[in-house]
Amino acid sequence: MLLKGRTAVITGAASPRGLGLATARLFAEHGAKVAVLDLDTEMAREAARSLKGRGHFGMKCDVVKMRDCEKAVERALKRFGQIDILVNNAGVTSPKRVMEIDKTEYDRVLDINLRGTFQMCQAAIPHMRERKTGSIVNLSSVSAQRGGGVFGGSHYTASKAGVLGLTKAIARELAPDNIRANAICPSFIDTDILGSMRTDEIIERIVSAVPMGRAGTAGEVAGCALFLASDLSSYVTGSEIDVNGGSHIH
Ligand SMILES: NC(=O)c1ccc[n+]([C@@H]2O[C@H](COP(=O)([O-])OP(=O)(O)OC[C@H]3O[C@@H](n4cnc5c(N)ncnc54)[C@H](O)[C@@H]3O)[C@@H](O)[C@H]2O)c1
């Protein structure tokens, strides 16, 4: 039980095969109470109900809307009394070539992936500062480290590189307040993020470039999030942890 007595807020955590819900499950198994946030109220509630133990809750939170982020933090504080862990997992991908990305698509991807992460941090940091403790875990991507080449376009890569820079900057700024911030950089994990774009051909192409010869699982990313959320990583901050089957070794 690595998170007994701890509480966590996880964005984008209602997707049944997603990294957020896998992380929520593992955190709950380790004794944490979890706030499951996502775009759909009923899906978020259902995901929270499926977690082990009591006291979890689900609610709608569109991370693009600052007021939603603030409301989620307020609700978590009311229910839990404290927030120990924030996992910024909500994200979208978009496999477009650079000249196909119009303003709307650029804004959509940057707003959800980068602005959403920033806003959730801004909503949670005052409380974490007050208590002089907190762990923030942000989902970046191997695309940010190696210049795309997996699935998302350059705007996706830019958003995830932004998440990496943001993570390192807040880690430095918040370290005196005993708040840690780290990023996870997964390569291809077989979730529903590709939606209708998921074909056997695409999976085969992506996996053929992975030295371990397979896609990662959501549980394997959750394990890394658990390490970063728990005291096992108490002297780890500003780091980027690779979960990529060897597809980017640096
Ligand atoms: N799956 C991969 O291969 C992979 C690789 C690298 C990074 N990532 C990152 O991991 C994170 C989780 O990805 P996943 O594969 O579980 O995807 P997923 O599509 O299964 O889950 C993403 C969740 O985010 C939610 N979401 C989308 N927009 C939102 C918004 N505005 N506000 C709140 N929630 C919103 C969706 O409803 C969904 O539940 C994403 O940030 C993604 O970019 C995934």
User: Which CATH class is shown?
Assistant: Alpha Beta
Kindly state the mean pLDDT as a whole number? 97
Q: Give a quick account of the main beta sheet: strands, pairing sense, barrel closure.
A: 7 strands, parallel
Note poorly predicted spans.
none
Distance between the termini: 33 Å
In order across it, which strands form the biggest sheet? 3-2-1-4-5-6-7
What does it look like?
The chain has helices spanning 19-29, 41-49, 66-80, 103-131, 142-146, 154-174, 200-207, 218-229; strands at 7-10, 33-38, 57-60, 85-88, 134-139, 179-186, 240-243. The protein is α/β, with parallel strands linked by helices and 250 residues long. The chain has one domain (7-238): NAD(P)-binding Rossmann-like Domain (Rossmann fold), CATH 3.40.50. Helix 2 links the parallel strand 2 (33-38) and strand 3 (57-60). Helix 1 crosses helix 8, helix 3 (66-80) packs parallel to helix 4 (103-131) and helix 4 packs parallel to helix 6. It is globular, with a radius of gyration of 17 Å. The mean pLDDT is 97. Nicotinamide-adenine-dinucleotide binds at residues 11-12, 14-15, 18-20, 38-39, 61-64, 89-93, 112, 116, 139, 141, 186, 188-189, 191-193.
Output the keywords.
single chain; 250 residues; alpha/beta; Rossmann fold; seven-stranded parallel β-sheet; binds nicotinamide-adenine-dinucleotide; SDR family oxidoreductase; Sc_DH/Rdtase_CS; SDR_fam; NAD(P)-bd_dom_sf
Quick overview of this protein structure:
By secondary structure, this protein is of the alpha/beta class. The protein has helices spanning 19-29, 41-49, 66-80, 103-131, 142-146, 154-174, 200-207, 218-229, and strands at 7-10, 33-38, 57-60, 85-88, 134-139, 179-186, 240-243.
